[in-house]
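Box S2. Input/output pair 1.
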Amino acid sequence: MSISQRTVDAYLGQGILTATLVVETGLHIGAGNDEIQIGGIDNPVVKTPQGDPYVPGSSIKGKLRFLMEWAFGKVRANGDGKVWGWTSDDVSPGDPILRIFGTAAKKEAWLEGPTRLLVRDAMLDGEWRERALSSGGELTEIKTEVTIDRIAGKALDGVGARQTERVPPGARFSFEAAFRVFSVGGDHGADDLKCLAWTIQGFDLLEQDALGGSGSRGYGRVRFADLALKGPASEEKLDNIRKGHAFGTDAPPSEILAAVRRAFGADEPAQ
């Protein structure tokens, strides 16, 4: 079937994914620092105008896409490091990465509808915030790091310590994402529901990796607690069914796909 034949013919609704994003090890998502201040922090975290740290939806979505591109083997062969779908050469009918995350390719090369996954900024949980402040704690922590002299085994002379701001372990954020489901080429949403199931599996990939900067140095381990999917037909709890599955590129795990189909009131496909 050609790309031109696989156009959207119906919008079937959206599923809402919710969870508590729990920080397991110090999390650093940088805000940049345009000013050099004496005694200031070298690497601050991104914050709201009120000064509360938050997790940008772009950071979560970007890391999910990175991990799922590798899981699907959708890494550009020329080694330029650009995102899959950067050009029309990457486009093929039914591509799950481009369905889920979108593409920069020209419109005429991709007619299977808009980006399915929308990830909201994860804002700091109010109860955790009040508990941290009332107990005399802070909403962020400062970690000091140095470069080690490879011979002497101590801090390298002439290279000063650098300070990195992090969200501390135990911090909790309210996570929400929406997933739009369309019927494409008369499939009654079957392919989009598979893509949603793969996306849910992607949260497990992220828990096994790291979010934000310096993941190789222990930063950024996170957990999605109480992950749930609310669809047009039902709400499904996902924590007990989403873990421990190998990532299969032919089909998502049957348990996850069944929960997704229940959420949308979709009949099981004929065997």
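Box S3. Input/output pair 2.
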Amino acid sequence: MKPRAYSAALSLPLAPGFAPLWNAMREGLEGVLEPHPAPAVLREELALAHREAYLHHVFNDGLTRAETLRLGRPFGPETLQRALHSAGGTLAALEDALRWGLGLNLGGGTHHAYPARAEGYSLFNDVAVAVAKARAEGLRGRVLVVDLDVHQGNGTAAFFQGDPTVFTLSVHAQHNYPQRKEQSDLDVALPDGTGDAEYLAALEPALEHAFASRPELVFFNAGADVLAGDRLGRLALSLEGLAERDRRVYRRVRESAAALVVVGGGGYHPNLRLLAAARVQTYRLAVAELWSVARGG
């Protein structure tokens, strides 16, 4: 049995310009996992985390011009559908993680959305919704969010401030978006141009601290926008450095015996082949490092 990986790209028409990246990813993941269409999250599932007034506004009124500017992309039915399937893919991956120990969403990681507002390409916060869904279904153990996207997970931090059962870690570029950062349980802000050695040296103690919380469930935002040359990133990791980042996260997960959900996070590199290679290696490494362990093999 191969692990499943969910993608909104199989649920909806491809976004303009996305086909080359998606085709390269499918080719790179062939034989390693089974791509599945990401289902749409239900409104009542969103309401487990997001405020009802916000959901009513989004579904019935749409976003105002000012709210659209904060989102950073045009809002319309297509934007809403993509957000619903992106979050639904994370919920489907959560089900796999709770059953098998490993769940994979090729999208998701929309960590800038707050309980009552959209921001930074993020209409709904898929990880916050998934945590709320897990709680609603009886999960009582501690949860850890390892957010290694190049941008601080400000929305996720805001969702869980004051919640002692969820530990949030964000390792990000200090001078990148968002300008106003929220307070995670642990924030590691890195200077522009940070490369492999410096990044990994900062990551290791951060992971040690975060996993000391003894999580039962881990969400890993595996943003590829830490790569050198990313259009919206300020860090300078190589493909090899990114692989070592992922290995260190997976090693900690394996040692903790926690269930893991991997979400895609950001990636805006102009070299689509490099971006596809980065994304593919994150998921291939997850399967290689954790799938047999997750299933008790």
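Caption for Box S3: Residues 71 and 119 are 4 Å apart (CA to CA). DSSP finds ten helices and eight strands in the chain.
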